[in-house]
């Protein structure tokens, strides 16, 4: 146990010391002003302590009281904290990098050109306004042409994306009916497996639809109005009626879903189903058509992360009217692309996902969101540019040497443990020998050579990048597990006990929040669980905080400020 804790603690420290930000950039005239120079500090923040509080009575208040009294949440953020300072520094650096790319006019076909073009397209608001809903029309026509259950299964399968990550990022939410996760098998850690997770909701999780808490009820009303407004803005006939149908279907989806507590229990997730068994265990959906369209037909086995929920969702595809599913697909097609549609759609989306859900009064500047969106699509390309300038190989080598020094003494210390049997010591040493350490950035960068990015096609860039990511994950199903790869956007990871242990350091700093406040896309999609960050954090909040069994080893400090839909109260939670 001490070995695990030491390794994870080291990874967290490295993540702060050697960070690569979310890919970002800003035009020179819009670049953020440099913060006033501050003297370098290290150790405990004595100025943040409130000495009027006895640590034995309220240690959180004692340690953070003075800081909290002075902390101010920026108008375009849902939270603030020590990680936000790191994020701002990284954002400014990335702004300079992308600004520099535009000046150097990178060669066509290079990653530098892809980065510059993705950012430019996202910033081309005039072009986005001119194109209007034209980019959406092919997808909407495909939805409108659905005439059978097999057609529905095919469209649902074509929409499957690798947009969930239950192990590294605790991200369980997808607007698609199901989400795909590719990782080592829970029983066979040498080979990758496809995991299918429940989805289908426009709000963070099932509680938003089923809870009787007054704040949740108010959010539901705002969501219903948002769905109607978005459909109406898109010129959909009978928008109000169809919006009511969309919400009614999502409520049924929510009732079919497993709870967040069940979902977080990895011991309940080991449900490998042969492809042929899906029709028997989860009847309703045309699974043959679905898997063929999703690119999974060649798999022998797929893990059903929430088997009961997958069976119930499959049944809904048969039992609910085809038109209800077509309206649901139409709404989510628009909703998922709001950031690259005309401003009216973007504003509506922020009004609900930004202000209603997280209490954020102001949308982040477009250039900041463009930086973040570029990083989501081309994370390794931006990261490689960043480390070339800000994180030299010599710095990485120093950290790696520090890690190696620690690992070198572990066997000696294990031998001195008188409470451990010889057999247990041998197993502990084997774990030390199997430890794989990643620092700062991967040894091999991702190849974006087949990803087509255009400087005048923000909508198409987003779609192609999402498809590319899914194809990249699907390709892993034909390879053995590569333990040198670092999981994206995570600070520390341990492989299952049966596999090689891995401690990795993230290169994407982010502030603590109850949503993806640091998300490069502007944080519109709240996660189903609060971010697990250490240190001070002050957040706007809209819904009750739930206990998370998987977070029992984490200390989280959070100061919640009410949003317009929350009860007029303040709350503080601390868990260990």
Residue runs with pLDDT of under 50 for 5 or more positions: 1-37, 489-535, 541-576
* Class of secondary structure makeup: alpha/beta
Give the overall average pLDDT: 80
Instruction: State the helical fraction.
Output: 40-55%
Provide a count of the helices.
Answer: 21
Question: What's the topology here?
Answer:
Elements (H helix, E strand, L loop, with lengths): L1 H16 L41 H12 L8 E3 H23 L6 H13 L1 H7 L5 H8 L4 H10 L19 E7 L7 E7 L8 H4 L3 H20 L5 H18 L3 H5 L7 E3 L3 H4 L5 H8 L6 E4 L2 H13 L2 H14 L7 H16 L7 H12 L1 H12 L2 H23 L6 H12 L2 E3 L19 H18 L26 E3 L32 E5 L14 E7 L8 E5 L1
Parallel strand pairs: 3-5, 6-7, 8-9
Antiparallel strand pairs: 1-8, 2-3, 4-5, 9-10
Helix pairs in contact: 3-4, 4-17, 6-15, 7-13, 9-10, 9-16, 10-15, 17-18, 19-20
Description:
There is one protein chain. With 576 residues, the chain is α/β, with parallel strands linked by helices. The protein has helices at 2-17, 59-70, 82-104, 111-123, 125-131, 137-144, 149-158, 207-210, 214-233, 239-256, 260-264, 278-281, 287-294, 307-319, 322-335, 343-358, 366-377, 379-390, 393-415, 422-433, 458-475, and strands at 79-81, 178-184, 192-198, 272-274, 301-304, 436-438, 502-504, 537-541, 556-562, 571-575. Strands 1-8-9-10 form a four-stranded mixed β-sheet. A four-stranded mixed β-sheet has the order 2-3-5-4. α7 (149-158) packs parallel to α13 (287-294), α10 packs across α15 and α17 packs across α18 (379-390).
Please name the defining characteristics of this protein.
576 residues, alpha/beta, four-stranded mixed beta sheet, globular, disordered C terminus
């Amino acid at each position: 146990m001490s070995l695990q804790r030491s390794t994870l603690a080291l990874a967290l420290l490295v993540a702060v010391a050697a960070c690569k930000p979310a890919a970002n950039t800003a035009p020179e005239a819009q670049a953020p002003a440099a913060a006033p120079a501050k003297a370098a500090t290290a150790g405990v923040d004595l100025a943040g302590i409130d000495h009027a509080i006895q640590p034995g009575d309220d240690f959180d208040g004692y340690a953070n009281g003075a800081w909290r009294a002075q902390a101010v949440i920026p108008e375009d953020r849902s939270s603030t904290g020590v990680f936000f300072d790191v994020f701002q520094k990284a954002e400014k650096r990335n702004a300079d990098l992308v600004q520099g790319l535009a000046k150097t006019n990178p060669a066509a076909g290079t990653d530098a050109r892809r980065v510059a073009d993705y950012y430019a397209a996202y910033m081309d608001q005039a072009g986005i306004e001119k194109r209007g809903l034209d980019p959406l029309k092919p997808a909407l026509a495909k939805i409108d042409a659905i005439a059978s259950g097999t057609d529905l299964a095919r469209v649902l399968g074509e929409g499957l994306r690798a947009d969930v990550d239950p192990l590294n990022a605790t991200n369980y939410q997808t607007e698609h009916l199901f989400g795909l996760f590719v990782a080592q098998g829970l029983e066979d850690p040498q080979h990758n497996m496809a995991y299918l997770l429940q989805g289908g909701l426009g709000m963070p999780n099932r509680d938003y639809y089923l809870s009787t808490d007054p704040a949740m009820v108010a959010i539901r009303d705002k969501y219903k109005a948002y769905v109607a407004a978005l459909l109406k803005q898109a010129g959909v006939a009978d928008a109000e009626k169809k919006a009511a149908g969309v919400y009614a279907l999502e409520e049924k989806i929510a009732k079919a879903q497993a709870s967040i507590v069940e979902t977080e229990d990895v011991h309940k997730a080991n449900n490998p189903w042969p492809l042929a068994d899906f029709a028997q265990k989860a009847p309703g959906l045309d699974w043959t058509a679905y898997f063929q369209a999703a690119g999974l037909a060649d798999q022998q086995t797929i893990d059903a992360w929430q088997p009961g929920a997958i069976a119930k969702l499959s049944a809904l595809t048969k039992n609910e009217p085809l038109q209800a599913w077509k309206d649901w697909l139409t709404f989510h097609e628009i909703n998922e692309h709001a950031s690259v549609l005309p401003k009216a759609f973007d504003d509506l989306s922020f009004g609900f996902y930004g202000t209603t859900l997280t209490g954020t009064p102001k949308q982040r500047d477009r250039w900041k969101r463009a930086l973040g969106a570029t990083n989501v699509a081309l994370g390794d390309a931006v990261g490689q540019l960043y480390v070339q300038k800000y994180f030299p190989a010599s710095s990485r080598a120093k950290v790696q040497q520090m890690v190696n020094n620690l690992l070198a003494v572990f066997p000696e210390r294990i031998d001195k443990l008188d409470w451990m049997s010889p057999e247990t010591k041998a197993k502990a040493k084997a774990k030390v020998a199997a430890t794989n350490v990643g620092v700062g950035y991967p040894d091999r960068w991702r190849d974006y050579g087949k990803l087509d990015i255009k400087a005048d096609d923000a909508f198409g860039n987003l779609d192609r990048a999402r498809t590319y990511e899914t194809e990249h994950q699907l390709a892993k199903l034909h390879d053995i597990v590569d333990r040198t790869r670092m999981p994206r956007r995570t600070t520390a990871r341990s492989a299952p006990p049966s596999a090689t242990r891995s401690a990795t350091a993230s290169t994407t700093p982010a502030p603590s929040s109850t949503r993806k406040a640091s998300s490069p896309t502007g944080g519109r999609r709240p996660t189903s669980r609060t971010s697990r960050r250490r240190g001070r954090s002050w957040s706007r909040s809209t819904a009750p905080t739930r206990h998370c069994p998987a977070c029992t080893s984490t200390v989280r400090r959070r100061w919640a400020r009410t949003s317009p839909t929350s009860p007029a109260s303040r709350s503080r939670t601390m868990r260990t």
